[in-house]
């Protein structure tokens, strides 16, 4: 093992979240929403079912708490518990993949589908037009959790003071911890807005060709 890998957590926290928030069950109902990306995704899930209910996304299913916004077959999204700014969202693969180069075709397409949708959600909830999407690969590239993930970081007009450039994801350190009550409220609002975004996509899918 490379000496730079020694700081990695012994148990992948993102895999723990993935286990606690399972993917939606396949629906056989003919009245279910159109499966807009079944041609991409072997799971043939409909999009709405990938957004957990408030009850299903209870944050205390893991320790530390997880504030989940999306739990699809291939992709998860949840609030960073040490956010750089309010609304800092992490988007990761459900399966454990170390780096982007390890993604399979279906996973890559799923990530590519959800990233712009979630970016719109972050913008709306954070009330800003600007944001970063950051993705690190390997310890030398500042990847702390060795499970491929993307940061969507809203950039408000008035930026909080950042003491240093650490990208620490878990544990105490360089950024303030997310308050549980605030995290639960923000995640619930993001799920609500995500349902609206997905509703618009599904409506377009009914009217025209599949994505």
Mean pLDDT across residues: 83
Radius of gyration: 17 Å
Which class in CATH terms? Alpha Beta
CATH topology (fold) name? HIT family, subunit A
> What oligomeric arrangement do these chains adopt?
single chain
- Dominant shape: globular
Helix content percent band = 25-40%
Per CATH, which architecture? 2-Layer Sandwich
Q: What separation lies between the terminal Cα atoms? A: 42 Å
Low-confidence residue ranges: 3-7, 28-34, 36-44, 165-173
What class, by secondary structure content? alpha+beta
Kindly report the spatial arrangement of strands forming the biggest sheet: 1-2-3-5-4
| CATH level-4 homologous superfamily | HIT-like
N-to-C series of helices and strands? HEEEHEEH
Total tally of structural domains:
1
Active site: 149 (tele-amp-histidine intermediate)
Region (Disordered): 22-41
Organism: Massariosphaeria phaeospora
GO biological process, one term: nucleotide metabolic process
Can you describe this structure in just a few lines?
Residues 22-41 are annotated as: Disordered. This protein has 211 residues and is α+β, with helices and mostly antiparallel strands.
Secondary structure topology:
Elements: H1 13-20, E1 68-71, E2 75-79, E3 89-93, H2 105-126, E4 131-135, E5 149-154, H3 180-207
Antiparallel strand pairs: 1-2, 2-3, 3-5, 4-5
Region (Disordered): 22-41
Motif (Histidine triad motif): 147-151
Organism: Massariosphaeria phaeospora
